Amino acid sequence: MSTELPDYFFRVRDNGAFVYRVDTENRQRRIEMDQIAVINIRNGDIKPHGGRTLSDTDLAQIRQWMEERRALLARRDIDDIHRSVDHLNLTAQWAQSKATDDQLDEVTDRLLLAMHDLRTVLVRKKADRLTKKAGG
After folding, report:
1. Model confidence at 1: pLDDT above 60
2. What pLDDT is stored for residue 103 in this prediction?
C-alpha cells in the first residue's frame, strides 16, 4: 500500500462521480476531503461544487479520470457480453442434462422470447454492417 494519498478522490455514482480534493497537510494530520465538483460521464458535464472555480489542474485531473472511467466501463460492457455467451452455453447444457420438466416449464417461454429478440437485433445489425461494407 502506498504511503502517499492521491490528490483527488472520485466517489462513483450512477452516470458519474463526486470529486473531492484530498488534503493531509493540516495541523492534525487528518485526511480531509473537500468536495469540489460533480461530474456526469454520459454528457461530460463538470459542475463545480459550492460556487468554486476549478483550476486547470482540477479540470485536467477530472477529464483524465472521466476518460479512464469510460474506458473501464466499455471493457466491463464487453466482458459482460462474453459472460452472457458463457451463460447461454451453460443454460443449454443445463436444459439438456439437468433441468426437470417443471424447471423447463418455468423458464422456456421467457428464454425463447429473449433469445428471439436477441437474434432479431443481431441479424439486423449484421445486415446493416454488411450493407455498409458493400456500399462503402
Report:
1. no
2. 98
3 state SS of 41? coil
Its pTM stands at 0.76
Pick from 86, 83, 88: which is nearest to 115 by CA? 88
Look at residues 57, 8, 13, 61 and name the one whose alpha carbon lies nearest to residue 34.
8
Q: β-strand 32-40 against 46-48: which pairing, if any?
A: antiparallel
Single out the residue of 75, 54, 73 nearest to residue 63, CA to CA.
54
> What b/e readout covers 16-49, taking b as 16+ CB neighbours within 10 angstroms?
bbbbbbeeeeeeeeeeeeeebbbbebeeeebeee
Residue with cell 469510460: 70
Total length of the chain: 136
Separation CA 103–CA 51 (nearest Å): 58
Q: Which residue has the higher pLDDT, 75 or 29?
A: 75
Sign of CA dihedral 82, 15, 128, 110: positive
